[in-house]
Amino acid sequence: MKRSFLLYAFILLVLVNVFTYSFLSNEVKFEQERYQRTTKRLKDSLNSLTNKLNDANYFSLEKNENAQNYFDSAVANKTIAYEKLIPVVTEKLMDYNANPKGNPYVGQDQIGANKFVINKVKVLNHRWIIADFSDGNMWGEVLLKYFVNEDESISFEVIQSLLYAK
Predict the structure, then answer these.
(1) How far is residue 87's CA from residue 106's CA, in Å, rounded to a whole number?
(2) pLDDT exceeding 90 applies to what percent of the chain?
(3) Which range is least confidently modeled, 27-36, 63-72, 112-121, 157-166?
(4) How far is Cα 71 from Cα 89, in angstroms, rounded to an integer?
(5) Residue 78: pLDDT above 90?
(6) 28 pLDDT above the threshold of 90
(7) Around 120, how many Cα atoms within 13 Å sit in the side-chain half-sphere?
(8) What distance in Å separates the CA atoms of residue 114 and residue 111, rounded to the nearest whole number?
(9) pLDDT at 66 over 90
(10) Please, which domain of life does this record's source organism belong to (predicted)?
């Protein structure tokens, strides 16, 4: 009796060990496959977002080598680094927001009590800028030309301005 009990207990322990080993090895395999699927999905999402960002920045001085080359000069001390130029151009344009009648480069006259100021600027290439402006009630966009003068000052010219209806 004691012998058959030990035999049954031994067989039961062997079966528990076999099922435990089988379960754990399948669980590890399942987790590895899930990790690989998740990693692939995340890489695909990252690639998709990178492509969308590259498409969104297609029209920008940062990505346009032809526009960047425009600022390279044969005279070494006259070369303008576009990385430094973008913040300078943006800052100079935003400085006009302090004007009591509003920023003159929005291409719109003051309509209400509030003046038009530029909120957001994107330097498209070596010549053009697009900017968003508002007076708090009305919004618009403006396309500007900019020039880096010989004395390294920056001048602007309104190409076209658009004011959205309320």
Answers:
(1) 19
(2) 47
(3) 63-72
(4) 14
(5) no
(6) no
(7) 6
(8) 8
(9) no
(10) Bacteria
Put the strands of the sheet holding 154-163 in their side by side order.
117-123, 128-134, 139-148, 154-163
Six token digits for residue 76: 């070494």
Long-range pairs for 136-142 at CB < 8 Å and ≥24 separation? 137/112, 137/166, 138/111, 138/112, 138/163, 138/164, 138/166, 139/163, 139/164, 140/106, 140/108, 140/116, 140/164, 142/105, 142/106, 142/107, 142/118
Length reported for the chain: 166
Phi, psi of 74 (to 5 degrees): -70, -30
Query: HEC states along the chain?
Result: CHHHHHHHHHHHHHHHHHHHHHHHHHHHHHHHHHHHHHHHHHHHHHHHHHHHHHHHCCCCCCCCHHHHHHCCCCCHHHCCCHHHHHHHHHHHHHHHHHCCCCCHHHCCCCCCCCCCEEEEEEECCCCEEEEEEECCCCEEEEEEEEEECCCCCEEEEEEEEEECCC
Q: Are 151 and 123 in contact (CB under 8 A)?
A: no
